[in-house]
């Protein structure tokens, strides 16, 4: 998917919501456990009820890999279901990959070619030759971890390396990579006050912003400091939406939660006109 298609979709739906499919067998409604593929059935229910309110879905791969072959099959069915029924929706494989170039190419093929995701999250720690293999894929997007939402972000990411913090160095250096136009960045919603500085370095890039909802980040602050002329934000909530109810009405409850966030996003978009 091109960035232009994503921006047009955001304006059409008046939403820049990404719903995280962090599907946990210990949290999904009991009645689904009787199905042959409970993870897929849960995801299908969420997608059917919420697709008109969001522009992206982000399955976190850990929740699928944890179940071995069964989990991987559920992931495959989920991405096929999305691509077949909602091809306009941006899909993110939250895999946090990155390795020596030869290996990164295989990761890229696994998620971009085999599974046909539009994007993947990648850890920047191994540098240029671990990231450029992902960037080589046309109309696919590599979402680099810049400043993450968790407490451990302060261990390394905000430490100074020379003149600037490590996360700033990640942003600035990655802009020089081949096919850098295919980069997006992760910035946690819990770090919204850093967004002004981040926007100085990457004014035009899309930011994936997880951490509203269960982690307590503020949508209003993220929009205030992080929005750019193309909106430039994909704000993710996982548990806050998909586990709004633990019974048979889980999909309706998820749609209600997603609807509330979409309304807030619409208000922000109208005000920014
Ligand atoms: O890359 C991510 O998506 C990510 C980066 C980050 O800094 N913080 C973060 O929470 N995430 C992911 O975003 C999702 C957040 O889930 P909730 O806290 O339930 O909304 C999880 O899948 C996390 O792995």
Summarize the helices and strands and which ones pair or pack.
Layout: H1 3-13, E1 17-21, H2 38-50, E2 56-59, H3 62-65, H4 68-85, E3 90-97, H5 101-114, E4 119-122, H6 128-135, E5 141-147, H7 153-156, E6 160-161, E7 164-165, H8 166-174, E8 183-187, H9 195-201, E9 207-210, H10 219-226, E10 233-237, H11 239-242, H12 250-271
Parallel strand pairs: 1-2, 1-10, 2-3, 3-4, 4-5, 5-8, 8-9, 9-10
Antiparallel strand pairs: 6-7
Helix pairs in contact: 2-4, 2-12, 5-6
The chain binds orotidine-5'-monophosphate (OMP).
Orotidine-5'-monophosphate (OMP) binds next to strand 10 and helix 11.
Describe what is shown at a glance.
The chain is an alpha/beta fold.
Strand ordering within the main sheet: 1-2-3-4-5-8-9-10
CATH class: Alpha Beta
Residue runs with pLDDT of under 50 for 5 or more positions: none
List ligands, each type once. Answer: orotidine-5'-monophosphate
